[in-house]
């Protein structure tokens, strides 16, 4: 099986130190396996994506020497694929229409927020009582067990910890969970390397993959880059855009956060690939 990895930034702001670590890790993993590395622009939430920010990010990657092996794709251009998947889920009974407002969901769920999300109690599982459908939800069932290449065995009770989650939002936008699953399968992605904050999404994505009859990639979630206050460095908390006047310095910093020891030479990326290949979590030939 040919290794195919990807970096999938959301163009809500430029790359920062945290997103560079994720980009570099995914690039290194692909190069260490002699595989292909793709870039997908996850602009499915259009209102949050400033015009032209996708080109800013692509330019940052190019300045760092991280070049994809195929032309990038944009989620905003792939709605027909997501609709086909949703239609299949509805037909198979895995998805249903929901008429609940956020206020109603909050009232039914009670004081059980989970990372800012509300656990949906399944109010509309058996119909909307004539109310118009606002969103489409995935019907969860049971526990998902999976193994991360770095974090090891993981488990999540989807019903208790997540509830039936949204596939298409009330505003008509596609939800991240469905879009990413459809895209990964359509692009033939075998390995997903991304930040540890996204590990919590993996069980939902595996559940969708199984319901759609799609393969489940291998997953590797990398350590997070933390801000001075101890929280994840992110665009939401004001992470500064990468200063690319010295790209090699930024790459060295990102490599060091991944536990690699490289210098500022022009062979930095080649040296990092060699060190990455020696990691215990590196995919071995024939592994699943």
UniProtKB/TrEMBL annotation:
Question: Which EC class is the enzyme in?
Answer: ligase
Give the Glutamyl/glutaminyl-tRNA synthetase class Ib catalytic domain ranges: 4-241
Name the residues that bind ATP: 235
Q: Which InterPro entries match?
A: Glu-Q_tRNA(Asp)_Synthase, Glu/Gln-tRNA-synth, Glu/Gln-tRNA-synth_Ib_cat-dom, GluQ/Sye, Rossmann-like_a/b/a_fold
The entry's Zn(2+)-binding residues are 98, 100, 120, 124
Quick one: a GO cellular component term? cytosol
Q: How is the cofactor bound?
A: Binds 1 zinc ion per subunit.
Keyword vocabulary terms for this entry:
Aminoacyl-tRNA synthetase, ATP-binding, Ligase, Metal-binding, Nucleotide-binding, Protein biosynthesis, Zinc
Under the heading PANTHER family, the entry gives:
GLUTAMATE--TRNA LIGASE, GLUTAMYL-Q TRNA(ASP) SYNTHETASE
The UniProt family comment states:
Belongs to the class-I aminoacyl-tRNA synthetase family. GluQ subfamily.
By what name is this protein known?
A: Glutamyl-Q tRNA(Asp) synthetase
Q: From which lineage does this chain's organism come? A: Bacteria, Pseudomonadati, Pseudomonadota, Betaproteobacteria, Burkholderiales
The primary gene name is: gluQ
């Amino acid at each position: 099986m040919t290794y195919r990895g990807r970096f999938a930034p959301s163009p809500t702001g430029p790359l920062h130190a945290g997103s560079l670590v994720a980009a570099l890790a995914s690039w290194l993993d692909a190069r260490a396996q002699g595989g292909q590395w793709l870039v997908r622009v996850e602009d499915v939430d259009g209102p949050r994506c400033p015009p032209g920010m996708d080109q800013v990010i692509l330019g940052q990657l190019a300045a760092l020497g991280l070049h994809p092996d195929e032309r990038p794709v944009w989620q905003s251009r792939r709605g027909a694929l997501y609709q086909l998947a949703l239609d299949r889920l509805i037909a198979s009974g895995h998805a249903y229409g929901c008429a609940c407002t956020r206020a109603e969901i909050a009232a039914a769920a009670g004081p059980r927020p989970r990372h800012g999300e509300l656990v949906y109690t399944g109010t509309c599982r058996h119909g909307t009582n004539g109310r118009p459908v606002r969103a489409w939800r995935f019907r969860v069932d049971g526990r998902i067990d999976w193994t991360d290449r770095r974090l090891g065995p993981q488990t999540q009770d989807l019903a208790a910890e997540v509830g039936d989650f949204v596939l298409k939002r009330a505003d008509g936008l596609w939800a991240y969970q469905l879009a990413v699953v459809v895209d990964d399968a359509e692009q033939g992605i075998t390995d997903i390397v991304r930040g540890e904050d996204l590990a919590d999404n993996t069980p939902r994505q595996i559940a969708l993959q199984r319901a759609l009859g799609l393969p489940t990639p291998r997953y590797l979630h990398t350590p997070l880059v933390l801000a001075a206050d101890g929280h994840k460095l992110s665009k939401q908390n004001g992470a500064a855009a990468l200063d690319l006047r010295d790209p090699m310095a930024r790459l060295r910093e990102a490599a060091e956060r991944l536990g690699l020891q490289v210098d500022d030479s022009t062979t930095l990326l080649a040296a990092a690939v060699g060190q990455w290949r020696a990691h215990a979590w590196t995919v071995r030939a024939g592994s699943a």
